């Protein structure tokens, strides 16, 4: 009888431990549920960014460029120049640069190359109806005009009212530490973007001068155009250099009599772009903000897929904004790990 009671006591002891597996299972499901929630949020955010592209793309471009130009507005304000005057001048300069980049002269060389490779002398002209021409033109031009207008209006208003906008955003935070953290993040983002764009612009202009000189030495027609194209395209890492290589190869095939000579200019540019992208730019920017090449490549691929060429142009500045924000919110652990 005593043995039976002892066994019953052991059975009760085992029965007390039965709830442990569900608790451990619940502990395993909690992180999985959190990861699933984050994954669903990321998917929904990507869908939102994709379908809201006509609205978000010009606004995001205006905010990034406005943050980059913000130090100029502040410097002018210290000399008692109205922010509205500075904003209008910077908006006009930006619009003038875009019109200059849309000039037909750089595209003339591409059209000449297309005419040589694919002559259109044997094509049969078919007269389309007037409405058949007007309808697609209106459908294409109207959204573009709206987006360009939205970009410039957002840029001017953001530059002119940036301090009021910052004070308005600070008012959303309740604690003093949160307010100070937001101000530090904003100042750091502005500082890093301005430094990044200024340094990259200087490096790209130097690259353009070298490319123009090389095009002149190789005997390319209009070498200045190739220098300008190299300067503009190099603002898009990896993709811009690849496009410039293809352009040099195509023009070389038309200009030079043999394939060996045609391969020399693109090969020289690949060596120059590799030295610039792997040694010069990282060395200059390394003391300011370290950008992981893999992170930059993935960011360019993602934003180019999501928002097209303009997304590829904004990929690196958006990555800078993300890294600066995450550095302030989650400071890196200074403890040294064993090798």
Total of helices: 12
Parts with pLDDT < 50 across at least 5 consecutive residues: 100-110, 122-135, 137-141
The Cα radius of gyration reads 29 Å
Q: What's the pLDDT, averaged over the residues? A: 77
Major β-sheet annotation: none
Structural class of the secondary elements? mainly alpha
User: Based on DSSP secondary structure assignment, what is the total number of beta strands?
Assistant: 0
How would you spell out the order of helices and strands?
HHHHHHHHHHHH
Separation, N- and C-terminal Cα atoms: 63 Å
As a percent range, the share of strand residues is under 5%
Task: Give helix % range.
Answer: over 70%
Shape: globular
Explained architecture:
The chain is globular and about 70 Å long. The chain has 339 residues and is mainly alpha-helical. The N and C termini lie far apart (63 Å). Helix 3 packs across helix 4 and helix 9 runs antiparallel to helix 10 (239-255). The protein has helices at 2-16, 20-51, 53-78, 83-101, 104-117, 130-160, 162-170, 176-218, 223-233, 239-255, 259-285, 293-329. The longest helix has 43 residues, at 176-218.
Write the layout of secondary structure elements.
Elements (H helix, E strand, L loop, with lengths): L1 H15 L3 H32 L1 H26 L4 H19 L2 H14 L12 H31 L1 H9 L5 H43 L4 H11 L5 H17 L3 H27 L7 H37 L10
Helix pairs in contact: 3-4, 3-6, 3-8, 3-12, 4-6, 5-10, 8-9, 8-11, 8-12, 9-10, 10-11
Main features:
83% helix, 12 helices, single chain, 339 residues, mainly alpha
Put the structure in a nutshell.
83% of the residues lie in helices and 0% in strands. With 339 residues, it is mostly helical.
């Amino acid at each position: 009888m005593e043995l039976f009671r002892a066994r019953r006591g052991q059975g009760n002891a085992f029965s007390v431990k039965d709830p442990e597996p569900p608790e451990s299972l619940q502990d395993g499901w909690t992180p999985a549920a959190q990861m699933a929630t984050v994954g669903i949020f990321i998917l929904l955010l990507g869908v939102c960014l994709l379908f809201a592209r006509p609205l978000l793309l010009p606004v995001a471009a205006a905010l990034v460029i406005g943050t980059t130009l913000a130090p100029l507005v502040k410097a002018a304000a210290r000399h008692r120049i109205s922010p509205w005057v500075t904003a209008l001048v910077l908006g006009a300069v930006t619009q003038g640069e875009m019109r200059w980049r849309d000039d037909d002269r750089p595209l003339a060389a591409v059209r000449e190359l297309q005419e040589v490779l694919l002559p259109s002398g044997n094509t049969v002209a078919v007269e389309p109806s007037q409405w058949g021409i007007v309808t697609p033109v209106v459908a294409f031009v109207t959204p573009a005009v709206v987006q360009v207008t939205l970009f410039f209006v957002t840029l001017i208003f953001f530059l002119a009212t940036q301090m009021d906008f910052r004070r308005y955003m600070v008012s959303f935070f309740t604690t003093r530490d949160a307010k100070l953290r937001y101000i530090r993040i904003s100042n750091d983002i502005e500082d890093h973007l301005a430094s990044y764009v200024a340094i990259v612009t200087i490096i790209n202009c130097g690259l353009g001068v070298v490319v123009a000189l090389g095009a002149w030495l190789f005997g390319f027609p209009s070498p200045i155009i190739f220098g300008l194209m190299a300067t503009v395209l190099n603002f898009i890492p990896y993709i811009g250099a690849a496009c410039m290589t293809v352009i040099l190869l195509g023009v070389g095939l038309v200009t030079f009599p043999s394939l060996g000579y045609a391969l020399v200019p693109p090969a020289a540019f690949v060596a120059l772009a590799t030295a610039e992208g792997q040694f010069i730019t990282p060395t200059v920017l390394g003391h300011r903000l370290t950008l992981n090449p893999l992170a930059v490549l993935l960011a360019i691929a993602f934003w180019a897929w999501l928002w097209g060429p303009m997304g590829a142009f904004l990929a690196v500045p958006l990555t800078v904004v993300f890294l600066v924000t995450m550095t302030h919110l989650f400071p890196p652990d200074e403890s040294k790990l064993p090798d």
